[in-house]
Write a structure and sequence with these properties.
Length: 106
């Protein structure tokens, strides 16, 4: 199992706006292609202008296939356009995490 860990940094004071934009235009399409995320969260300590989400995949190949389907969906392209036009996001960091054997024991 792998986990796609994504953190987005927004302009100060705009996290709620970006999440609302995503909820209205992107969430349903993303869940349709990727399934339900493990986590979608904001922070109260550290970088207060950020939010994180984590998506599980069986493999890198599965991730690539699902994300290709997502990017080819016109509804997702519409969300990306609206998000870019809003100009709320300033940075993104992606990590691919690999679960250890210990994870399966808890």
């Amino acid at each position: 199992m792998i986990y796609d860990h994504r953190t987005y940094i927004c302009r100060p004071g705009t996290v709620k706006q970006q999440i609302a934009l995503y909820e209205e235009y992107g969430l349903a399409t993303q869940v349709k292609h990727l399934g339900k995320p493990i986590l979608y969260a904001t922070t109260e300590v550290g970088d207060l202008n950020s939010f994180t989400h984590i998506w599980p995949y069986g493999s890198i190949a599965e991730r690539a296939e699902k994300r290709a389907e997502l990017y080819n969906d016109p509804d997702w392209q519409n969300y990306l356009k609206k998000s870019a036009e809003a100009g709320l996001l300033v940075e993104q960091e992606n990590k691919i995490l690999v679960g250890t054997d210990i994870f399966d024991k808890v």
